[in-house]
């Protein structure tokens, strides 16, 4: 039995919650995965997994063994990297907002893949919450506050935000010149499908953030839908500047209240503690930090 391969299979089963998902993830026959786990349990003399018709979960011994396995496998990958000319290799799974990927990361990505040709990227573009461990994701990029202490958080950039509306909406309601002029206006409301939290308008006034409560006719739960509703004339929105720059240039949206801006929005890379030393994650996040900090970054006005 190849113990390192068995450990790799075992960790994927724990992370994905099933033999079939782990087999598909590792591109192995399911029968081979089953045999490896039986051999591993026999070798250790303990039961590592609870198996039911609906799910697979680690036993107490399995949970303890899992933590040791991920540390050993990451250490092994790091050690092997020392003898590959510091060239990380393997599959890197990343999730990020669709707009960040489409407008910023993907256009610049050839630079990264040329620099690290042995890394194969799998990038998911969406705004949904991700269970990094269970879904086998190495790194996720998210905007806003990060509340999960179980993850390592690497700040990328503080994104400039703007307040916008469609020209047709502003023609009908008037162009606000100050916060006092917002009376009689309405917003497109953004709500989180995960937490249910709802977002209206916020403005940075001196050292405090002022919330402005306006009526709404439409609420959406995706960044793309949020902008589409704004273009359609449903009200004011606040969004990172990079996300609407093209729409503003095309005249489909118009920025307002330039003298009273929304607070900046943090963009952060998150990854599990046990992948903190993964060479693939490290070089990718380092590249993102550099990309966001460059002069003329899309995240800055």
From TrEMBL:
Superkingdom of this protein's organism: Bacteria
Residues annotated as domain HTH lysR-type: 1-59
Keywords: DNA-binding, Transcription, Transcription regulation
InterPro entries in alphabetical order: LysR-type_TF_proteobact-type, LysR_HTH_N, LysR_subst-bd, WH-like_DNA-bd_sf, WH_DNA-bd_sf
Xref: PROSITE patterns: HTH_LYSR (PS50931)
Record-level GO BP terms: DNA-templated transcription
A molecular function (GO) term: DNA-binding transcription factor activity
Keyword Secreted: no
Family: Belongs to the LysR transcriptional regulatory family.
Stated name of the protein: LysR family transcriptional regulator
UniProt lineage: Bacteria, Pseudomonadati, Pseudomonadota, Gammaproteobacteria, Pseudomonadales
